Amino acid sequence: MIKLITFDLDNTLWHADPVLIRAEQHLYDWLKTNCPELTDKYSKESMRQFKADVANANPGLKHKVSALRLEAIKLSLLAVGYDENSAMLQAQRAFEIFHRARQQVTFFDHTLHVLNELKKYYRLAALTNGNADVSTLGLDRYFEFSLSAESVGKQKPAPDMFMMALDHANVAAEEVIHIGDHPEHDIMGANKVGFHTIWVNFETTNGAGIAPSTCHPTAVANCLSEIPKLVAQIAEGLDK
Q: By CB count within 10 A, which of 28, 180, 220, 224 is most buried?
């Protein structure tokens, strides 16, 4: 019996790349106006590399995308002469600009309809490696709870987030279907803890061109509209 359905967010319910590119542009424009010393030295590309360097130097931030970006902005401001207090204050303001823009997503076709249909029969939850805010996005009307790598401390495909979802919902792994686009993070990770899985395989996402046999999903959806039927088939198969 299926009791819980967990969803990945980025590239499963919306295309993440345009969102992040636009958010980084908003961030850079704000810095250009408010911290010109920084943008005089760093381009968007070199700031992206600076952030990557900070991540490599701080393994503890690997799974904390918000904390990592905030730290990278602060350190870059320190590097161009800001004092500690000013750097932190401006970094916090800059991150707020980025984070607000990062929530401005365009849902894939059928996203809200599918969530609304599934919510009639199952408990729903979100499991994300990113920092999308389900409350800001209005998705908290569908999701009973949301877990992120930031809050859990480990990214998918590590089992931590999946196991925490089981504890949070008080269900067994075989009573859960996880739905996501990433063959490793979502499908292989969920498979390892015993979830059923539906691989959302769009041409525009990370799953393109990878054979289902590589990640062994329970089912494959090429359009979100197929998900309710696939969920029903998995549930019916368990009842036989």
A: 180
